[in-house]
Write a structure and sequence with these properties.
6-stranded mixed sheet, elongated, disordered N terminus, 8 strands, 3 helices, two-stranded antiparallel ribbon
Length: 190
């Protein structure tokens, strides 16, 4: 998984928006060290010899943030207490509902995320309501190998991050609530 997000996390001197992330939520069946693939009969088969480099939630966070942080105006901060930067701070929550890999056929990713402005808060001292979005992606791997499926899944996670970056840009411009559906099948509700 790309670790570009970690390299950009301290690059706040050029940022216009700061992002902090919470823990990544996964279904219990996905939160395992070994890769899991779908067999021909849609049965989940664990692959003990093929494991994620780190914990799957960390791998997902890293890959998604790499996509978000492609935009130079965004930087990651480790905790929401960074109001002292004087920049808008958004909390990003990530949740995976489904992540399927059928070797040589397809990879799917169904995910939700929320963005909430933490700082500055409104004049009344209240934080903004969260914008909650849901997306689905599908990709055909380049080949039948496990590494092809993992690469395709990484690409989907990066696309997820890019979608979050675009959604945050619309949110900041005041048009995120009208995002509706797009080519990546995103639906956001305030």
């Amino acid at each position: 998984m790309p670790s570009q997000a970690a390299g950009r996390s301290s690059d706040t001197h050029r940022a216009q928006v700061l992002i902090t992330t919470g823990e990544v939520h996964l279904p219990d069946g996905l939160d395992r060290p070994e890769l899991q693939v779908l067999s021909g009969g849609d049965e989940v088969v664990p692959l003990p010899q093929d494991q994620w480099r780190g914990g799957l939630p960390d791998e997902i966070r890293s890959a998604v943030l790499a996509g978000v942080l492609e935009r130079p105006e965004y930087a990651q901060i480790p905790a929401p207490g960074a109001v002292r930067y004087g920049l808008p701070v958004y909390a990003l929550q990530l949740s995976v509902q489904r992540m399927d890999m059928a070797l040589g056929q397809y990879v799917d990713l169904d995910a939700t995320w929320s963005l909430q402005a933490l700082a500055p808060v409104s004049a009344s001292g209240e934080a903004s309501r969260a914008l909650v979005c849901r997306s689905s992606w599908r990709r055909v791997p380049a080949g039948p190998a496990v590494s092809d499926a993992v690469q395709a899944q990484q690409t989907l996670m990066r696309q997820w991050g890019e979608q979050i970056g675009r959604t945050l840009a619309r949110l900041r411009s005041g048009s995120a609530a009208t995002a509706g559906r797009s080519a990546t099948d995103v639906l956001c509700v305030p």
